[in-house]
Specification:
The complex is a heterodimer. Chain A is built from 11 helices and no strands. Chain A is mostly helical. In chain A, helix 2 (about 20-50) packs parallel to helix 6 (about 120-130), helix 3 runs antiparallel to helix 6 (about 120-130) and helix 3 crosses helix 7. Chain B has 2 domains: about 5-245, P-loop containing nucleotide triphosphate hydrolases (Rossmann fold), CATH 3.40.50.300; about 250-310, Alpha-Beta Plaits (2-Layer Sandwich), CATH 3.30.70. In chain B, helix 9 (about 240-245) crosses helix 11 (about 310-324). Classes of the chains: A mainly alpha, B alpha/beta. Bound molecules: adenosine-5'-diphosphate and magnesium ion. Adenosine-5'-diphosphate sits at the interface of chains B and A. Magnesium ion (MG) binds near residues 61, 62 and 179 of chain B.
């Protein structure tokens, strides 16, 4: 969808939302608090231990910030796709197929919730604070890897969101399942995957590639060893994984739309 | 006229749509049952015509429209809208068609109606001057000046439906699909909608396919009527044709000089008497209105008379019953 049209639609949604000002600000505050709470958990953990899987406090906070920004961006721009299950149940998904724009981007624009921005802001601050505190020999590769990781992270989260939401075309009440992958996954990516058992570790590497979101690249940046059996080039594979995730998500979404059955009157 | 203009605007070839729906089989076991909503329909609709697509509830009207508008993919058969397959070329088709579902809204609920119009202008990328021209014309034709700046959620159903209609055609579609556009409307709004459709069709040759339960819509608007039931076409023709074929009974209403005993005319039956007025029903196969009137004039002094045409409502009800 052309950016200009997206902008017009988002502006309209914001104007409409703003008619309910109080709930707008309450929600913005709650979103900021939620992502703040995640960070407090990390800080409390480190009052008890000095490292998690050999990662220091600043290193884990670095991971937290990378994951938080990527997730925040996906939350802001793509998470709306999760509402597809509600539209399917109500039969209101019809309208998305009647306009000359992709249904996914229409959902993203028409259900855009500016109040979600709260989620992405706080990890940006953490990143700004933690970067200078990291004990890292910065090389051009490491510097470039930071923004690349954030963008690829957002794309991978977005693709997981779309993939999981495509289930809604086949299953009723699939939204909880989808959310457990996305919100649950986002929580996992805040920690080194070494804390997971080998089975889960493989799952989040090869099946739902959330380990690429920030753990593999971050490990390279802060000079932490990858778990055994993980080749070192995985630290640089995020763009490829992001692209592959998008291809899969797009195919499943389109297949889902062809299976859309609307509702009887 | 080019070859393209002679292609039908809408075409269905052996189109079926089956839904699998869950149904309870016993306490726990749930089975799947197949519902054939559209059953092997073939039809073509000429450019620039207004066609009524009618049938009882559950006949398959909405399902047909959803396949034509790219919402549903047919289970089998071919659908063509402006020569395109809506399920393959959906985005392209959306630019050429306008759609109104009487039970759904495509307007922005919390914003003034005008904002919906301007958003749709961006969505369809209508050039500014063209948009303004259309908007002015539609506001005038649909009498919307009073409420175009009111948030949609505050509009009456009739006002909203006029807004929906305008919203559906601001991008100059050549084909318009209307699924029960007059459902629940007051008389004034109904009339506004009908007048507007006639005007649109006359001015721009827009092809219109509409479903409705109000046969007054059909009589006012449609030269052609397609009647479906159980997912198949059971009747297809002009309104006059269908009346001719099914309107087998007629009634002559006669005002006599003074009240009289029931008249006895061969081939007729007096079905009602009200003072000096009598209703004589006859089958068109048995006699003619002229013969009836002549026979009556021999028996009594006639002051006035009218011949009641069969009502399309009655005919359609009759056709539905026959197909059950
Ligand atoms: N999305 C759907 N899922 C299951 N059954 C449906 C669906 N849509 C329509 N049907 C069934 O198909 C038949 C035709 O429905 P519909 O096309 O809505 O009829 P109409 O619009 O003529 O009233 C009905 O039996 C209806 O229950
Ligand atoms: Mg219907």
């Amino acid at each position: 969808m052309p950016l200009r049209i997206y902008g017009h639609l988002v502006a309209a949604k914001t104007r409409a939302d703003f008619q309910y000002r109080t709930s707008f600000f309450l929600y913005l505050a709650s979103q900021t608090l939620i992502s703040f709470a995640d960070m407090v958990v990390v800080l409390i953990l480190f009052t008890q231990v000095s490292s998690i899987a050999s990662w220091s406090r600043s290193q884990v906070l670095f991971l937290y910030a990378l994951s938080g920004i990527g997730f925040g961006l996906a939350d802001l721009f793509i998470s709306q796709v999760g509402l597809v299950s509600r539209h399917i149940k109500a039969g209101t998904f019809d309208q998305f197929l009647l306009r000359p724009l992709g249904a996914l981007w229409q959902l993203s624009a028409l259900e855009f919730a500016p109040r979600r921005a709260g989620r992405a802001v706080q990890p940006v601050i953490v990143l700004a604070v933690i970067l200078p505190a990291l004990d890292v020999q910065w090389t051009p590769v490491k510097v470039a890897l930071v923004p690349i990781t954030v963008v690829c992270g957002a794309v991978i989260f977005g693709a997981v969101w779309v993939t999981a939401s495509s289930l809604a075309f086949y299953l009723v009440n699939s939204q909880e399942l989808a959310n457990s992958f996305t919100y649950g996954g986002s929580f996992l990516t805040q920690y080194p995957i070494d804390i997971l058992g080998p089975w889960l570790r493989r799952f989040f590497t090869f099946a739902v590639p959330l380990a690429f979101v920030c753990y593999f690249p971050a490990a390279y940046i802060v000079d932490q060893p990858l778990p055994e059996s993980i080749p070192s080039w995985f630290s640089f594979a995020a763009p490829v994984i992001a692209l592959a995730s998008v291809v899969v998500a797009r195919a499943l979404w389109r297949l889902g739309i062809r299976h859309y059955r609307s509702t009887g009157s | 006229m080019t070859a393209n203009d002679r292609d039908p605007a809408i075409e269905l070839r052996d189109v079926s749509k089956t839904f699998r729906v869950a149904h309870k089989k016993g306490r726990v076991r749930r089975g799947l049952r197949e519902v054939v909503a559209v059953d092997d329909i073939s039809l073509a609709i000429e450019r620039g015509s207004i066609v009524g697509y009618i049938g009882p509830n559950g006949a398959g009207k909405s399902t047909t429209i959803k396949m034509l508008t790219g919402i549903l993919v047919p289970s089998s058969g071919q659908v063509r809208v402006d020569r395109l397959d809506p399920s393959r070329a959906r985005l392209e088709v959306t630019r050429r068609i306008g759609v109104v579902f009487g039970q759904r809204s495509q307007l922005w609920w919390d914003l003034p109606l005008r904002d919906s119009f301007s958003l749709l202008r961006h969505v369809y990328r209508v050039p500014g001057p063209r948009h303004q021209e259309n908007l002015d014309r539609f506001v005038e034709l649909l009498d919307m000046a009073e409420f175009v700046d009111v948030p949609v959620r505050q509009l009456s159903l009739g006002q909203r439906m006029r807004g929906e209609l305008a919203a559906a055609i601001l991008h100059d579609p050549t084909i318009l699909f209307l699924d029960e556009p007059t459902i629940g409307l007051d008389v004034v709004s109904k009339e506004a909608v009908r007048r507007f459709l006639i005007e649109l069709n006359r001015e721009r040759h827009t092809t219109v396919l509409l479903t409705t339960h109000d046969l007054a819509d059909v009589e006012r608007l449609c030269e052609r009527l397609i009647i479906i039931d159980h997912g198949t076409v059971i009747e297809d023709g002009t309104v006059a044709d269908i009346k001719e074929r099914y309107g087998t009974e007629r009634t002559v209403v006669i005002d006599l000089d003074q009240p009289s005993v029931p008249l006895t005319v061969a081939g007729t039956e007096v079905v009602r008497i009200d003072g000096p007025r009598q209703w004589l029903r006859f089958r068109r196969a048995d006699t003619t209105a002229a013969a009836v009137v002549a026979a009556v004039a021999e028996q009594a002094d006639v002051r006035d008379l009218t011949v009641d045409e069969p009502e399309i409502d009655d005919i359609v009800r009759h056709i539905y019953q026959a197909s059950r």
